[in-house]
């Protein structure tokens, strides 16, 4: 057999083998598994001992300085001084658009409404059982910088707990846009 014919025969044999190995007549029949240990790994439960690791713990702590997925660093403590500093240093990165205000409205009515009420007056449905929060349309609230409002939503203030776990950072800024629209419509509210 000459060289080109032998090469052509080997190529045809390789193509036929590949087609036979990849296909199956039965769609529900699994194909062949090679290197089974790489397909079916042996998992360890999160809190079970693990003889492979140095400290014998399966669940390892995150590397120093890492943040959970979706978490943004916020280098302000839950103190009045840092609230004022956030007011000086942070500005709303989002443009006030009808869409952002509408999103802020939805988030406000999902998270803030129960205490602050429909129009931010501090008359939400839980108020008979809890102390009344200050009105968000009062002169004091109108004078707060956006960064300080962001800090209050993120870290909490007084009896109000942090809402960082419930409201994403970009939605906090949208709530502030919505709050500003409430304040603009409230005129000279006390």
In short:
The protein is mainly α.
Textual characterization of the structure:
The mean pLDDT is 87. It is elongated and about 95 Å long. The longest helix has 20 residues, at 3-22. The chain is 45% helix and 0% strand. The chain has helices at 3-22, 36-39, 80-89, 98-116, 139-143, 146-155, 169-186. It has a domain at 80-186: Cytochrome c-like domain (Cytochrome Bc1 Complex, Chain D, domain 2, Orthogonal Bundle). Helix 3 (80-89) crosses helix 6. The protein is built from seven helices and no strands. By secondary structure, the chain is mostly helical.
Give average pLDDT, whole number.
87
What structural class do the secondary elements suggest? Answer: mainly alpha
Low-confidence stretches: none
CATH superfamily of the domain at 80-186: Cytochrome c-like domain
Principal-axes geometry comes out as elongated
How many H/I helical runs?
7
The largest pleated sheet is described as: none
SSE topology sketch:
Elements lengths: L2 H20 L13 H4 L40 H10 L8 H19 L22 H5 L2 H10 L13 H18 L4
Helix pairs in contact: 3-6, 4-7, 6-7
